[in-house]
Design the sequence.
C-alpha cells in the first residue's frame, strides 16, 4: 500500500470516519474512498455504500473489472443519558451486540459503579462530557432521564453531530414539549423528526428489560439501514 494512502487511512480511522480501501484486482492499484465521497461509477459507488452500511469487506464487479473493498468502519458507540433501570439492562446487551457503551448522568446517587459494573460511567453533566468526547455519525444517543435539564443538551448535540440514532424516553405529549424546547435551541423541523420518541420499537415492552430490548433493536435497525431511502423507521 502506498505510504500516503496508509497515512490517510490511519488519519480517517483516528477521526472515527468510515473509509473503504478499493483495490483493483486486475492491476493492483488502490485508492481510498471516504464515506460521502462521490464515485464516478454508479455500480461501484452503490457497492461501497453497502459495504460501509454493513461493515463487510468483499469482492465486487463494476464496468468489467473486479475490486476488493476493504472496509474500515468505526465501532458503533451507544451513549446512554441516564443511569436508570432501563440503562442497567441496556448496557450489557448492547455490549454483547458489539457496541461501545457509556453512561452519562450527573446524579451521583444513580451513576455508581456498583449499578453499572464494567461500563464507562460519567457522573457529570452531558455538556461537559461531550466537550472532551464529541458525538459523531457512528454514535447512537438514548436519552432516558425524563429530565429536560439533563436530556435536552445531548439531544441537541446529537442532532448537530448527525448521530445515526437519537431516541428519547417519554410519551407523545412529553415529546411535543421536548420538541418545542429543542426548536428554541435552534433545531430545525427536519432535525427533530429524526428523534425516535417514544423510544424503542413498538413491541409492547413493559418492563425495563423489555424496553431495553426494544431500544437496542431500534438502534441496530438505524445502524444497518442508514442511507437506505424508506428503510429507516420514521420517528414520531
Sequence:
Amino acid at each position: 500500500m502506498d505510504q500516503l494512502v496508509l497515512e490517510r487511512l490511519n488519519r480517517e480511522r483516528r477521526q472515527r470516519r468510515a473509509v473503504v480501501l478499493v483495490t483493483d484486482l486486475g492491476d493492483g492499484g488502490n485508492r481510498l474512498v471516504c464515506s460521502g465521497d462521490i464515485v464516478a461509477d454508479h455500480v461501484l459507488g452503490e457497492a461501497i455504500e453497502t459495504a460501509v452500511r454493513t461493515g463487510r469487506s468483499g469482492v465486487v464487479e463494476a464496468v468489467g473489472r473486479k475490486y476488493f473493498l476493504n472496509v474500515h468502519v468505526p465501532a458503533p458507540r451507544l451513549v446512554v443519558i441516564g443511569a436508570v433501570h432501563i440503562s442497567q439492562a441496556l448496557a450489557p446487551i448492547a455490549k454483547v451486540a458489539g457496541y461501545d457503551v457509556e453512561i452519562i448522568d450527573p446524579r451521583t446517587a444513580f451513576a455508581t459503579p456498583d449499578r453499572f459494573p464494567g461500563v464507562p460511567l460519567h457522573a457529570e453533566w452531558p455538556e461537559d462530557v461531550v466537550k472532551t468526547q464529541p458525538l459523531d455519525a457512528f454514535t447512537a444517543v438514548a436519552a432516558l432521564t425524563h429530565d429536560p435539564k439533563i436530556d435536552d443538551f445531548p439531544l441537541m448535540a446529537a442532532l448537530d453531530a448527525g448521530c445515526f440514532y437519537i431516541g428519547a424516553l417519554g410519551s407523545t405529549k412529553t415529546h411535543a414539549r421536548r420538541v418545542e424546547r429543542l426548536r428554541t435551541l435552534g433545531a430545525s423541523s427536519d432535525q427533530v423528526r429524526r428523534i425516535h420518541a417514544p423510544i424503542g420499537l413498538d413491541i409492547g415492552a413493559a418492563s425495563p428489560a423489555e424496553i431495553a430490548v426494544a431500544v437496542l433493536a431500534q438502534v441496530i435497525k438505524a445502524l444497518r439501514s442508514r442511507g437506505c431511502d424508506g428503510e429507516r423507521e420514521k420517528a414520531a
Notes: Residues 208-225 form the longest helix (18 residues).
